[in-house]
Design brief:
single chain; alpha+beta; 10 helices
Length: about 210
Protein backbone atom coordinates (compact mmCIF):
# COMPACT_ATOMS: atom_id res chain seq x y z
CA UNK A 1 0.00 0.00 0.00
CA UNK A 2 1.73 3.18 -1.13
CA UNK A 3 1.61 6.61 0.53
CA UNK A 4 -1.46 7.94 -1.29
CA UNK A 5 -3.44 4.72 -0.80
CA UNK A 6 -2.62 4.58 2.90
CA UNK A 7 -3.56 8.24 3.43
CA UNK A 8 -7.08 7.84 2.04
CA UNK A 9 -7.51 4.37 3.57
CA UNK A 10 -6.95 5.92 7.00
CA UNK A 11 -9.70 8.48 6.34
CA UNK A 12 -12.88 6.35 6.22
CA UNK A 13 -15.08 9.44 5.89
CA UNK A 14 -13.41 10.31 2.55
CA UNK A 15 -15.00 8.00 -0.03
CA UNK A 16 -13.87 9.85 -3.18
CA UNK A 17 -11.10 12.30 -3.91
CA UNK A 18 -9.87 14.59 -6.64
CA UNK A 19 -6.40 15.22 -8.02
CA UNK A 20 -6.41 18.61 -6.29
CA UNK A 21 -6.86 16.81 -2.94
CA UNK A 22 -3.68 14.85 -3.58
CA UNK A 23 -1.78 18.02 -4.48
CA UNK A 24 -3.00 19.73 -1.31
CA UNK A 25 -1.95 17.07 1.21
CA UNK A 26 1.28 15.64 -0.23
CA UNK A 27 4.65 17.30 -0.50
CA UNK A 28 6.99 17.04 -3.43
CA UNK A 29 6.80 17.82 -7.12
CA UNK A 30 3.69 17.28 -9.21
CA UNK A 31 5.68 14.71 -11.17
CA UNK A 32 6.39 12.69 -8.00
CA UNK A 33 2.73 12.85 -6.92
CA UNK A 34 1.59 11.74 -10.34
CA UNK A 35 4.04 8.84 -10.28
CA UNK A 36 2.69 7.71 -6.89
CA UNK A 37 -0.88 7.92 -8.17
CA UNK A 38 -0.07 5.94 -11.32
CA UNK A 39 1.55 3.19 -9.28
CA UNK A 40 -1.49 2.95 -6.98
CA UNK A 41 -3.80 2.72 -10.01
CA UNK A 42 -1.58 0.09 -11.64
CA UNK A 43 -1.60 -1.93 -8.43
CA UNK A 44 -5.40 -1.82 -8.39
CA UNK A 45 -5.57 0.02 -5.06
CA UNK A 46 -7.02 3.20 -6.53
CA UNK A 47 -9.73 3.37 -9.20
CA UNK A 48 -9.81 6.20 -11.73
CA UNK A 49 -13.49 7.08 -12.11
CA UNK A 50 -12.87 9.84 -14.61
CA UNK A 51 -10.08 12.32 -15.31
CA UNK A 52 -8.96 13.82 -12.01
CA UNK A 53 -11.50 11.91 -9.90
CA UNK A 54 -10.71 8.73 -7.94
CA UNK A 55 -11.72 6.32 -5.19
CA UNK A 56 -10.16 3.40 -3.38
CA UNK A 57 -10.71 -0.10 -4.71
CA UNK A 58 -13.91 -1.64 -3.29
CA UNK A 59 -11.78 -4.08 -1.25
CA UNK A 60 -10.29 -1.10 0.60
CA UNK A 61 -13.52 0.83 1.10
CA UNK A 62 -14.78 0.84 4.69
CA UNK A 63 -18.38 1.26 3.50
CA UNK A 64 -20.05 0.31 0.19
CA UNK A 65 -19.94 2.78 -2.68
CA UNK A 66 -23.36 4.17 -3.54
CA UNK A 67 -23.47 4.58 -7.34
CA UNK A 68 -26.41 6.99 -7.07
CA UNK A 69 -24.56 9.28 -4.65
CA UNK A 70 -21.60 9.23 -7.02
CA UNK A 71 -23.62 10.75 -9.88
CA UNK A 72 -23.45 14.37 -8.68
CA UNK A 73 -19.66 14.04 -8.21
CA UNK A 74 -18.96 12.56 -11.64
CA UNK A 75 -20.54 15.60 -13.34
CA UNK A 76 -22.34 18.49 -11.79
CA UNK A 77 -24.24 20.40 -10.72
CA UNK A 78 -26.69 17.57 -11.36
CA UNK A 79 -29.45 15.46 -9.85
CA UNK A 80 -30.71 11.95 -10.67
CA UNK A 81 -33.89 11.92 -12.73
CA UNK A 82 -36.06 10.27 -15.39
CA UNK A 83 -36.09 6.45 -15.52
CA UNK A 84 -33.43 6.12 -12.81
CA UNK A 85 -35.46 8.19 -10.36
CA UNK A 86 -38.74 6.51 -11.31
CA UNK A 87 -37.16 3.09 -10.77
CA UNK A 88 -35.73 4.27 -7.41
CA UNK A 89 -39.29 5.05 -6.25
CA UNK A 90 -40.58 1.78 -7.80
CA UNK A 91 -42.82 3.72 -10.17
CA UNK A 92 -41.71 1.73 -13.22
CA UNK A 93 -41.14 -2.04 -13.37
CA UNK A 94 -38.18 -2.15 -15.76
CA UNK A 95 -34.60 -2.52 -14.51
CA UNK A 96 -32.36 0.47 -15.26
CA UNK A 97 -28.81 -0.28 -16.34
CA UNK A 98 -27.41 3.24 -16.48
CA UNK A 99 -27.77 6.19 -14.13
CA UNK A 100 -29.46 9.15 -15.79
CA UNK A 101 -29.23 12.65 -14.37
CA UNK A 102 -30.11 16.20 -15.33
CA UNK A 103 -27.26 18.69 -15.33
CA UNK A 104 -27.09 22.45 -15.48
CA UNK A 105 -24.28 21.99 -18.01
CA UNK A 106 -24.31 20.46 -21.49
CA UNK A 107 -25.31 16.83 -22.04
CA UNK A 108 -22.55 14.30 -21.49
CA UNK A 109 -21.97 10.57 -20.93
CA UNK A 110 -19.35 8.90 -18.77
CA UNK A 111 -18.36 5.24 -18.92
CA UNK A 112 -16.73 4.55 -15.55
CA UNK A 113 -15.53 1.42 -13.73
CA UNK A 114 -18.53 1.92 -11.41
CA UNK A 115 -21.18 2.21 -14.11
CA UNK A 116 -22.55 4.22 -17.02
CA UNK A 117 -23.61 7.79 -16.21
CA UNK A 118 -25.78 9.82 -18.60
CA UNK A 119 -26.42 13.53 -18.18
CA UNK A 120 -29.10 15.53 -19.99
CA UNK A 121 -29.56 19.28 -20.06
CA UNK A 122 -33.04 20.54 -19.19
CA UNK A 123 -33.49 24.36 -19.15
CA UNK A 124 -35.13 25.46 -15.92
CA UNK A 125 -35.70 28.65 -13.97
CA UNK A 126 -35.12 26.95 -10.60
CA UNK A 127 -32.77 24.01 -11.13
CA UNK A 128 -33.18 22.23 -7.77
CA UNK A 129 -36.92 22.81 -7.39
CA UNK A 130 -38.51 19.42 -6.76
CA UNK A 131 -35.18 17.74 -6.00
CA UNK A 132 -34.96 15.65 -2.84
CA UNK A 133 -31.89 15.14 -0.67
CA UNK A 134 -31.72 11.56 0.59
CA UNK A 135 -29.04 10.19 2.92
CA UNK A 136 -28.40 6.45 2.85
CA UNK A 137 -27.41 4.24 5.78
CA UNK A 138 -23.72 5.08 5.30
CA UNK A 139 -24.08 8.85 5.11
CA UNK A 140 -23.95 9.12 1.32
CA UNK A 141 -26.01 12.03 -0.04
CA UNK A 142 -28.25 11.35 -3.05
CA UNK A 143 -29.77 14.25 -4.98
CA UNK A 144 -32.80 12.89 -6.82
CA UNK A 145 -35.84 14.33 -8.57
CA UNK A 146 -39.27 13.77 -7.10
CA UNK A 147 -41.41 11.43 -9.23
CA UNK A 148 -43.27 14.38 -10.77
CA UNK A 149 -40.06 16.21 -11.64
CA UNK A 150 -38.60 12.99 -13.08
CA UNK A 151 -41.66 12.74 -15.35
CA UNK A 152 -41.29 16.38 -16.42
CA UNK A 153 -37.64 15.84 -17.28
CA UNK A 154 -38.62 12.74 -19.26
CA UNK A 155 -41.22 14.74 -21.23
CA UNK A 156 -38.58 17.32 -22.14
CA UNK A 157 -35.72 15.01 -23.08
CA UNK A 158 -37.88 12.51 -25.01
CA UNK A 159 -39.71 15.33 -26.84
CA UNK A 160 -43.12 13.82 -26.24
CA UNK A 161 -46.34 15.83 -25.99
CA UNK A 162 -48.33 13.91 -23.41
CA UNK A 163 -51.38 15.65 -22.04
CA UNK A 164 -53.08 12.84 -20.16
CA UNK A 165 -52.63 9.92 -17.79
CA UNK A 166 -52.99 7.24 -20.47
CA UNK A 167 -49.59 7.75 -22.18
CA UNK A 168 -47.83 7.52 -18.80
CA UNK A 169 -49.61 4.29 -17.99
CA UNK A 170 -49.23 2.79 -21.48
CA UNK A 171 -45.65 3.84 -22.28
CA UNK A 172 -43.90 3.99 -18.93
CA UNK A 173 -46.25 1.57 -17.16
CA UNK A 174 -46.69 3.96 -14.25
CA UNK A 175 -49.49 2.87 -11.96
CA UNK A 176 -52.47 5.18 -11.49
CA UNK A 177 -52.24 4.65 -7.72
CA UNK A 178 -48.72 6.08 -7.75
CA UNK A 179 -49.77 9.13 -9.75
CA UNK A 180 -52.46 9.77 -7.16
CA UNK A 181 -49.69 10.23 -4.58
CA UNK A 182 -48.59 13.50 -6.21
CA UNK A 183 -49.70 16.44 -4.08
CA UNK A 184 -50.99 19.87 -5.02
CA UNK A 185 -47.88 21.35 -3.39
CA UNK A 186 -45.62 19.38 -5.75
CA UNK A 187 -47.50 20.69 -8.79
CA UNK A 188 -47.32 24.28 -7.53
CA UNK A 189 -43.60 23.86 -6.90
CA UNK A 190 -42.93 22.97 -10.54
CA UNK A 191 -45.47 25.16 -12.36
CA UNK A 192 -43.00 28.00 -12.93
CA UNK A 193 -39.83 25.91 -13.06
CA UNK A 194 -39.62 24.77 -16.68
CA UNK A 195 -39.03 26.91 -19.77
CA UNK A 196 -40.59 24.31 -22.07
CA UNK A 197 -44.18 24.79 -23.23
CA UNK A 198 -44.57 21.02 -23.68
CA UNK A 199 -43.61 20.41 -20.06
CA UNK A 200 -45.83 23.17 -18.73
CA UNK A 201 -48.81 21.83 -20.70
CA UNK A 202 -48.08 18.35 -19.29
CA UNK A 203 -48.02 19.68 -15.71
CA UNK A 204 -51.35 21.52 -16.12
CA UNK A 205 -53.01 18.59 -17.89
CA UNK A 206 -51.87 16.02 -15.34
CA UNK A 207 -52.94 18.22 -12.46
CA UNK A 208 -56.38 18.62 -14.00
CA UNK A 209 -56.80 14.87 -14.61
CA UNK A 210 -55.85 14.12 -11.02
CA UNK A 211 -58.44 16.70 -9.88
CA UNK A 212 -55.92 18.78 -7.95
Amino acid sequence: MNTITRFFFEKPDVRFFFKRDISAVFRGSEYAKQALLKRAIAAGDIVRIRRGFYCLNSNLQRTPINELALAQLVYGPSYISMETALRFYNWIPEAVYSITSVSINKAKDFITPLGLYNYKRVPQNIFYSGVERIIDDYGNVILIASPLKALCDYIYTQKVSWKALKPLIDNLRVEYEDLRKITTKEFLQLENTYRSQRVNIFIKSLKKELHL
